[in-house]
Each structure stands twice: as C-alpha cells, then as structure tokens.
Design goal:
extended; mainly alpha; 46% helix; 186 residues
C-alpha cells in the first residue's frame, strides 16, 4: 500500500505543470509543456460571408483553388438536370457559404488530430450533405448549367424582406423630411 501511494505521488508530481520560471533543458527548443513558450493559437475561422474586401477576396481565391483543383475533379461527377453546376459559382452567395463550410470541415478532418476516421466523418457528415444541398435539382444552381454542352448562369432572386422590415422602412421614410435620408424632420 505504501509503495502504491509513493508511485501515485510520483505520477502526480510528473504530471503537474513545471514551476513558473523553472528552467528546462528543452526550453530553448520552444517545446510546449517542457518549459518553452506555448505555441500561438491558430486564428479562429470565420464564415466567408462575414468577411469583407481584400480578406473576402483572398479567402474566395483559396476556396476556388480547392474547389477547382481538388473537390470538382474528385467529387464533381457529371453535370445533369439532377445535379446542376455553375461555372460562375462564386457569384452565388449561398453556394460560396456551403462550399466554404465544406472546405473548413475538410481541413479539420484531414488533420492528424481528427484521427484515422477523420476523412470518413468528413465524407459522411459534410460532403454528402453539402453536395446534396448545392447540386439538388431545386437548389441554388438549378437555373444554371444542367448540361456541359450548354453552359448557363443565372442567380435566382431571393425572398423579399419581411413585412416587419418594410414597415420599419416606411416609418423611417415618414420621419425623414427633405434632406438626408435617415434625418428626422424638425
């Protein structure tokens, strides 16, 4: 019993964090947990539709490279009325949002920390669902190319604003007199 208690004490000591300011022979190598500085946390991914300007354009360029160089050659399949596609998919905001989310999930699930089943999980939980939504016959690309021999592109109109938004706009217009929009009349 006494030996077990000593071993437990040693394990607790070895598992505890090193004392602050303690010197480690590995500190010069920057190894986390061994006295070196902790690695910088990677930036938090943000949905592409929340980005603006150059940040949006850079992310869209990287996404386009992944879609054109990996996703479509491997998983694109044939373009048909049941699985439309658009050569100008970057102009469909909803498609950009779907494909960006798919790309982020791909990056996460191909990481070694995702384990050996990471790629399977990406296929099962992300790829199949995203492609079913994006390329469905009634989906966002349904008015675009349904045959490789007839390229087409058309962005379908979205729903109008809600009645509440229209009432708020009308009320704001009534409060605004001549002058700048949004200024109250005196």
């Amino acid at each position: 019993m006494e030996q077990s208690a000593q071993q437990a004490q040693q394990l607790d000591h070895l598992a505890s964090a090193p004392a602050p300011g303690g010197s480690s022979p590995f500190a010069a190598f920057g190894m986390p947990g061994l006295g070196g500085p902790a690695p910088a946390a990677p930036p938090e991914p943000r949905p592409i539709l929340e980005l603006e300007g150059e940040e949006y354009e850079d992310e869209l360029d990287a996404l386009s490279d992944w879609v054109d160089d990996f996703l479509l050659p491997v998983y694109g399949a044939e373009v048909t009325t049941a699985a439309p596609w658009c050569l100008q998919w970057q102009e469909h905001d909803d498609v950009v949002g779907w494909l960006h989310a798919l790309w982020l999930a791909y990056q996460q699930h191909k990481d070694p920390e995702a384990g050996l089943s990471g790629p399977f999980v990406w296929h099962r939980d992300f790829l199949t669902h995203a492609f079913a939504a994006v390329r469905s016959p009634g989906g966002p690309l349904s008015a675009c190319m349904t045959s490789p021999d007839r390229p087409a592109h058309r962005v379908l109109p979205g729903p109008p604003p809600s009645a509440r938004s229209e009432k708020a706009s009308a009320a704001e217009s009534e409060l605004s007199g001549p002058g700048e929009p949004g200024e109250r009349a005196s």
